[in-house]
Amino acid sequence: TPVQKTDKLARSIYVMARMTVSGDSIIKKKNNSLIEIAAKKFESRDRELNQVWKSLPASARTALKQEQRVWVTKKEQQCGKLSDAKSEAIPAEKRISIYKCQLEMTIARTAYLDGSE
């Protein structure tokens, strides 16, 4: 009957809408997890960089201070701002990309400062 067909159609539309919402929720959770992992990796290496910096003699820190400021600016220009990586208004892929780039540059800078590069 027409009523049964309408009910089946409505039910099908409802199920498809629920699947779409569930799919979006799964993608959002996955993206949030990837962002969190990227952030933690970066934060760990950033702490390591800060430890290396603090372990340098005061004279070395003074001599490298301007170079370090230039590096921080270059890293932000090349990778993007950490404030953007933390912003939910920025797409997940971009946020992850910022963290990954920041991580790579931080690892390289740490190696440079501790002489292991």
UniProtKB/TrEMBL annotation:
Annotated ranges, domain Lysozyme inhibitor LprI-like N-terminal: 33-113
One Pfam family cited in the UniProt record for this chain: LprI
Protein name: DUF1311 domain-containing protein
Organism (species): Salmonella senftenberg
